[in-house]
Design brief:
single chain, about 150 residues, mainly alpha, two-stranded antiparallel ribbon
Length: about 150
């Protein structure tokens, strides 16, 4: 299993959070069985200590294995990720993103999605940001608060 295969699944998972059409009945990246097979292959390579994952540190390996267990539970008894309730679809996406970030050693590039109600609306929407974007937004808010406190 190579990183480009993992990336292709993650890109396809964009449909889960409403970034692409989920109406494609044969799209492989919403196929829960394909995701399970891919994760099993990654898990086998991690446990064997060979292949592209042999350079991962023990902490990252353990974290990936834990995320895979969560993913297995989320995908239990479904054929397509689009058959899941929206919150579980987002959990699947976030879990795959966490695995990808660990494998690629890019924690700041990990996309995180959640459901929120925009100000003035009762309608839930899915919002996504990378870890780096969330940090930048938080730092900008803290800077603004500190600036206001100095007045």
């Amino acid at each position: 299993m190579n990183r480009s295969a993992l990336v292709s699944v993650l890109l396809g998972m964009a449909s889960i959070v409403g970034l692409a059409s989920a109406s494609e009945p044969t799209h492989p990246n919403v196929d829960a069985q394909s995701i399970r097979v891919q994760q099993a292959a990654i898990r086998a390579e991690i446990l064997s200590g060979a292949g592209p994952y042999q350079q991962l540190d023990l902490k990252s390996r353990d974290a990936i294995l834990q995320h895979q267990e969560r993913l297995t539970a989320l995908l239990r008894d479904v054929d397509r990720t689009t058959d899941l309730p929206e919150r579980r679809q987002i959990d699947v996406f976030n879990t795959l993103e966490a695995i990808s970030a660990l494998i690629n050693r890019d924690p700041d590039g990990r996309m995180v999605c959640w459901r929120e109600r925009p100000v003035g609306s009762n309608r839930l929407q899915t919002a996504c940001m990378t870890v780096a974007q969330m940090r930048a937004e938080r730092e900008a808010s803290q800077t603004e608060i500190a600036r206001r406190d100095q007045r």
